[in-house]
Amino acid sequence: MPLQIIVGAQWGDEGKGRIVDWFAAKADYVARYNGGDNAGHSVTVGKQLFKLHLIPSGIIHPHAVAVLGNGMVVNPKSLLDEMYSLDQAGVRVNPERLRVSHAAHLITIAHQALDKAMESARGKGNIGTTGRGIGPAYTDKARRSGLRLGDMFEHNFLERIGLHIDEANQQLSMLGAPYVNPMQVMDEYRTYAEIIRPYIVDISSELDAALRAGKRVLAEGAQGTLLDIDHGTYPFVTSSNTTAPGTLTGLGLGITAARDATVSGVCKAFQTRVGSGPFPTEVTGDLALRLRGTGENPWDEYGTTTGRARRVGWLDGVLLRYAVRVNGLTELVITKLDILSGISTLRLCTAYFAEGQRYEDIPFGPTDLEKYQPVYQEMPGWKEDVSKIRKWADLPKNARAYLDAISKLAGVPVRLVSVGPEREQIVVVS
Ligand code: IMP
């Protein structure tokens, strides 16, 4: 299995970071193919908590090479800040260990300013973006006026960034937002270019050679299936292809690279969502507080990037089946099973009901989820603390039944179950 793809099967925040960390122990490369520093991946190793937004979580393993692919949008300031904080935490980051695609697009402070100004202009209909400039950077990419990391070393780069800021300032003025100072941006980017230059490579050719040589490449998806620009709950989505096929375009790999790939979908034992948009199985009140946690622990349901409280609900099996389809998932990894301990009756959404009809699948994808009522299967919960369990057979009978029901609904096996935030709190199922 030379290529393994790990994606979020829900709305992001499934706990992919620590699962990537688990698989990265056996990987030669860990590569991100989409998004930017809107992602937030947390990994706890011993007493150290690593919060990564841009660099793949595999960097924590000293033998793995971390890759930022061409499908990403990269804020160079965030990249340098993250390299510095990893260094401070004792994780060596140098060009041997980190490779950045020349074709990834740059995020500038003008993109960030536009992201925030557009969100406030949307008012109540806002998307709830992370404000990191993701949408405006991908917009520039799509309208072919974006700046790529490789452009930083061209003789006309400062002139081009000046033009970009001028253009952005025109838009900002229409939105009634403050101007960005072009001189400041040009100065900063001169410095960034020098620091980043040794990290820039042709990712496509490097990963192709690695796969041909039998090396193991782990592709780390950011956000989740339901935030995919094409397959998510549009328009309440991010601006990239978060789903597994995005791995190929986002890393410059050909389609045959994925021929024997393992595609692991990471899915929480319940459902969460941050930002606006429909959420059929959402719960409120005491149960929501119970699932969300108080915010005292880093693994409670508060955004790693924005600190916002996440919306929570019962696991949605209809959307999970959809995620299996659009990603081609071959297996599931269930996270946060421990959070469900002590809930007397669990609910699992197995179908939707709308306008007198039952739906096992969603026609036209998850665009008009508002109209559906979830149909639930109720199952008895378990009281036991599962956080110290490491073997499938030791899990409470009702927990195994719940996981079996998820696997049956999804039509793919559950391979791993995480029962706590620490590296070793994993039950290997198969
Ligand atoms: P953007 O990616 O900042 O443009 O935000 C678009 C939508 O995706 C918003 O609803 C965000 O809350 C959501 N989003 C972006 N990144 C993440 C993530 O890493 N986890 C969960 N939601 C995310």
List its traits.
alpha/beta, Adenylosuccinate Synthetase, subunit A, domain 2, ten-stranded mixed sheet, 430 residues, Adenylosuccinate Synthetase, Chain A, domain 3, 30% helix, four-stranded mixed sheet, 2 domains, globular, binds inosinic acid
Structural write-up:
This protein is 30% helix and 21% strand. By secondary structure, the chain is of the alpha/beta class. The protein has two domains: 3-91 and 203-428, Adenylosuccinate Synthetase, subunit A, domain 3 (Adenylosuccinate Synthetase, Chain A, domain 3, Alpha-Beta Complex); 107-198, Orthogonal Bundle (Adenylosuccinate Synthetase, subunit A, domain 2), CATH 1.10.300. The strands form five sheets. A ten-stranded mixed sheet has the order 9-7-5-2-10-1-11-16-20-21, with helices on both faces. Helix 3 packs across helix 4, helix 3 (109-122) packs parallel to helix 5 (157-174) and helix 5 (157-174) crosses helix 6 (182-196). It binds inosinic acid (IMP).
Number of helices: 11
Low-confidence parts, pLDDT < 50 over ≥5 residues? none
In round numbers, the mean pLDDT is: 94
Strand order of the largest sheet: 9-7-5-2-10-1-11-16-20-21
Assign the CATH architecture of the largest domain. Answer: Alpha-Beta Complex
Structural class: alpha/beta
The unique ligands bound to this protein are: inosinic acid
Query: What characteristic shape results from the CA principal axes?
Result: globular
Give the full name of the CATH homologous superfamily of the largest domain: Adenylosuccinate Synthetase, subunit A, domain 3
Sheet with the most strands, sense and barrel status? 10 strands, mixed
Specify the helix fraction band: 25-40%
